[in-house]
Every structure is written in C-alpha cells, then in structure tokens.
C-alpha cells in the first residue's frame, strides 16, 4: 500500500462518493474509479458488499454505521477519522448512500475536512428519490400532475424548526420524504390538517432499486395502517402526490426481509 508515515506533509484528498441506492449497477463510472483507487474506505449501512467488492483487496475498510445494539459513530468522530486518514496520506473514499449532499451529511464532512486544510472531491450519486421513483414507475414531475418536487426529511434534528406543512400540502407537487417511516403518523396528520385529501396517493418504496425492493401503495388516510400491517422498515422512501397513484403494489406478495437501517 502506498502510505507515507503518519504526519506526512501533504494530506491526501478525501473523496465523498455518492454510491446510489444500494445497487452496484447504479454506481457512476466516476464513483467506481474512486472506489477502485482508494487506500481507505469509510462506509455505513447503506453501502452493501456488492459496492465494497470493487475496492482493492489491500484497501482498509472502516465501518462507521450502526451495528445491532450499537449506535452509529458520532459525526465528529467520523470527521476526525477522515482527517486522520487524509493526514496519513491515504487516498480516502467516504462512501455515501445516494448522493452525498442529499440528507447524507456530506456538507458537514466537507466543511470539517476543508477547515483542516484537506482537499475534498465530491462525486454525485443517484439519490433515493430518483432511484425509487424509477423503480416504481412514478414520474416525480408530470406536466398535468406535479410541476414541482420537494425533497424533505421526515426526521429532523432534535430541536429543529418545524417543517412548513402548509407549503408541503400545496397541490400540484410531489413530496419525497426521506427517513419518513418512523414519523409517518405525524406526516399524515399534518398534511391532512393542512388541507391535503385523505385520498392523496402515497407510495412507500422499501429498499428501492435493490433485490429486496418492496413497493407499497397507500393513501394519506391508510399510510400508517399500511406501514404497520406490512412491517415496513427503513430504508424506505415515501412519495406523496398524484403521481404516486401509478405505484403497482408488490409489498403484500413479496417475502423480502429488510433489516432496519
Ligand atoms: C440518511 S438518508 C441518505 C439519503 C441519501 N444520501 C440519498 O441521496 O439517497 C437515508 C434515507 O434515504 C432513503 N433511502 C436511501 N436508500 C434507499 C433505498 N434504496 N430505498 C428507499 N429509500 C432509501 C430512506 O428514506 C433512508 O431512510
């Protein structure tokens, strides 16, 4: 391995690599090249073996995600790890599910690395909304049904500002809720309270674009019951809007088991 001793004068750059939704064939060519070239790979739950498989046999693989009862490594420790690897002169690929800059904390890692004087490259990836919509045959925008698309999170930072529910409930748009399963009850309640119809279609796409994919068709009124009866777990995306009516329900018949992420 080509690693100068710790404290090398010139830190190696760190690449934040968008790895897409979990299917190796949705990696970009640029992501693939960065994975193949890396001396060290730092990854978490959304990155599967079929993506790690492209790393060099001698590359260091460092897992920073949740394991059974253990929590994810705190963000500050991940930042410090990336800085340390770069200072050791290791070409480091920080592998991110989907796109690094969409609910991926890529911004926090980039800021920490730059503050430490380390160069950062960003490789965009296929984000869950695009991958899940394609897998379920749901056009995220449509001239007759949705002229805008909102990507939002169903799981804010503790103490974070309340979402603008009135803006989210506006007609003529599609809303993609990332990390929305645990808060589906609140999402449905607030959208209904802000004027959205109970009949509004919702597609729940579990492990989209992977072999374990399940697609569940629901409405705002049936959303929480559907999640409970099908034991739907993260990672899953909620697509809310008229366009979601196209989702063909595969969830009941599919026997995929999906461990929580
Ligand atoms: C921390 S966010 C990361 C998002 C990622 N950076 C992206 O651009 O897709 C994790 C959430 O993304 C969504 N997600 C990621 N991969 C998914 C997949 N294959 N199928 C469904 N949802 C997915 C889920 O809502 C999950 O809880």
How are the SSEs placed, and which strands pair?
Layout: E1 14-18, H1 29-37, E2 40-43, H2 49-52, E3 60-63, H3 75-87, E4 92-96, H4 106-115, E5 120-123, H5 128-136, E6 148-153, H6 165-168, E7 173-178, H7 184-193, E8 201-206, E9 214-219, H8 223-229, E10 236-240
Parallel strand pairs: 1-4, 1-5, 2-3, 2-4, 6-7
Antiparallel strand pairs: 7-10, 8-9, 8-10
Helix pairs in contact: 3-4
Can you describe this structure?
- The two termini are about 30 Å apart.
- Helices cover about 25% and strands about 20% of the residues.
- The chain has eight helices and ten strands.
- It has two domains: about 15-125, Cobalt-precorrin-4 Transmethylase, domain 1 (3-Layer(aba) Sandwich); about 130-245, Methyltransferase, Cobalt-precorrin-4 Transmethylase, Domain 2 (2-Layer Sandwich), CATH 3.30.950.
- By secondary structure, the chain is an alpha/beta fold.
- The model is unreliable at about 255-260 (pLDDT under 50).
- The relative contact order is 0.15.
- The protein has a five-stranded parallel beta sheet, with helices on both faces. A five-stranded mixed beta sheet has the order 6-7-10-8-9, sandwiched between helices.
- The chain binds S-adenosylmethionine.
- S-adenosylmethionine binds near residues 98, 128, 178, 179 and 236.
- S-adenosylmethionine binds next to helix 5 and strand 10.
